Amino acid sequence: MRIAIPLAQGKLSLHFGHCDQFAVIDTDADSTKIANREDFAPPSHEPGVLPKWLGGMGVNVIIASGMGQRAQQLFTQNDIKVVVGASSGTPEELVAAYLQDTLQTGNNICDH
User: Fold this and answer.
1) Is residue 15's pLDDT more than 80?
2) Contact 88, 11 (CB under 8 A)
3) By Cβ atoms counted within 10 A, which residue in 7, 46, 79, 89 is the most buried?
């Protein structure tokens, strides 16, 4: 599984479309542990670009704090599961909690 986390200044971005990097984390299916992490600068933010870009990198899941409904639909169309409402944490902490089914999510702070 490949999980993407939008980052702003090294931390979870409050809105994925305003991030300056994505942490892309590979997990080991057998041990459900983190196998690798790479950070990537995203392409210019335009509707539909990020879902295609991340989908092309083999991302299966995106964990975000806030994301608009249209963006969520575009990720789903690219076979990427969307988890919104995540709170602060390092990418490794967020992915570990997701893998252990203990990730705390709240409201989607994005309203568009």
Assistant:
1) no
2) yes
3) 7
- What are the boundaries of each domain within the chain? 1-44
Residues paired with residue 25 on neighbouring β-strands, in sequence order: 3, 37
Residues 6 or more apart from 102 whose CB is under 8 A from it? none
- pTM here is 0.91
| Alpha helices (runs of H) in the chain, residue ranges in sequence order | 49-56, 69-77, 91-99
Residue type, 50: L
At residue 109 the predicted structure's pLDDT band, cuts being 50, 70 and 90, is low
Residues paired with residue 27 on neighbouring β-strands, in sequence order: 34
- The three-class DSSP label of residue 2 is strand
Q: In whole angstroms, what separates CA 96 from the centre of its chain?
A: 13
Instruction: Quote the CA–CA distance of 98 and 96 in Å, as a whole number.
Output: 5
CA distance 90 to 12: 7
Tokens representing residue 66 in the block = 């806030």
Rounded-to-integer distance, Cα 73 and Cα 49, Å:
13
